[in-house]
Amino acid sequence: MIEVNNLHKSFYAKKNTVKALNGLSFSAKNGEITGILGPNGAGKTTCLRTLYGLLSADQGFATIDGIEVTKDPLAARAKLGIFPDKFGLYERLTAYEQIDYFASLHGLQGQAKRQAIENIIADLEMEELAYRKTAGFSQGQRMKVTLAQALVHQPQNFVLDEPTRGLDVMSTRILRNYLNKFKAKGHCILFSSHVMQEVAALCDRVIIVANGKLAAQGTPQELCELAGEQQLEEAFVKLIGSDEGVAA
Ligand SMILES: Nc1ncnc2c1ncn2[C@@H]1O[C@H](COP(=O)(O)OP(=O)(O)OP(=O)(O)O)[C@@H](O)[C@H]1O
């Protein structure tokens, strides 16, 4: 379970200050896929970076399975898989070596590590990719390696930032199927998006963020009812009070 409590974060430039988070609070439960939906610049990535421990909030806190991220970052990260917005692969490594590296960073060793790597490779049906260097991999292949390295330590919680950006239909379907399988095992999944169809198709609950704070939350159907609209896109525009930065 992931909880975000009254997060505030400002970025200071020479002439102006950007308030990226302005008192954002929500929770994402086990056995559910929760989507953070918001227009460009709403604060989604800033919120996720705070969860990973890459940014520290000016005020408020985030917890992963009850562990406060800033108080015990290593323990919190052990319970978290991260799928970042850019796939940073080490192109001279094979897919196996890449996954092995992340498994080691999470403290896995020896036979337990080998077993964990083999399990995730089998789970993602990437046996044919495993011993190839990742240089030249397609976006879909890179996505699989990124998923494998995020989940090799079998975290309870999985956070993804704009996971389907740049993926074709087949890769998007593979990712969605995998997230549904992961959810069925009782894991907590939180992902950010500004793509309506993706959120409507995948999410049990939606957190709508605008101007760094919660604008509304609920199931896609509840949000439509709240806004008196049939489509999530229309409901979203009504609930944030603008259509700026919205992607269909
Ligand atoms: N490192 C930074 N330095 C200065 N400003 C930043 C920094 N990171 C984010 N911001 C600003 O904070 C605000 C929120 O940005 P953030 O990336 O969290 O939004 P987002 O909802 O993820 O947007 P998008 O959908 O476009 O990715 C934006 O105005 C952005 O320009």
Account of the protein in words:
The relative contact order is 0.19. This protein is an alpha/beta fold. The chain has helices at 44-52, 73-78, 95-105, 110-123, 139-151, 169-184, 196-202, 220-227, 232-240, and strands at residues 2-12, 17-28, 32-37, 59-64, 67-68, 80-83, 157-161, 188-193, 205-210, 213-218. It is 38% helix and 26% strand. It folds into 2 domains: 1-79 and 157-248, Rossmann fold, CATH 3.40.50.300; 86-154, no CATH class. A hairpin with a 2-residue loop joins strand 9 and strand 10 (213-218). The two termini are 29 Å apart. The strands form 2 sheets. It has a 6-stranded mixed β-sheet, sandwiched between helices. The chain has a 4-stranded antiparallel β-sheet with strand order 2-1-4-5. Helix 5 (139-151) packs parallel to helix 6. Adenosine-5'-triphosphate is lined by residues 11, 18, 20, 38, 40-46, 194. Keywords: ATP-binding, Nodulation, Nucleotide-binding, Transport. It holds the Pfam family ABC_tran. InterPro entries: AAA+_ATPase, ABC_transporter-like_ATP-bd, ABC_transporter-like_CS, ABC_transporter_ATP-binding, P-loop_NTPase.
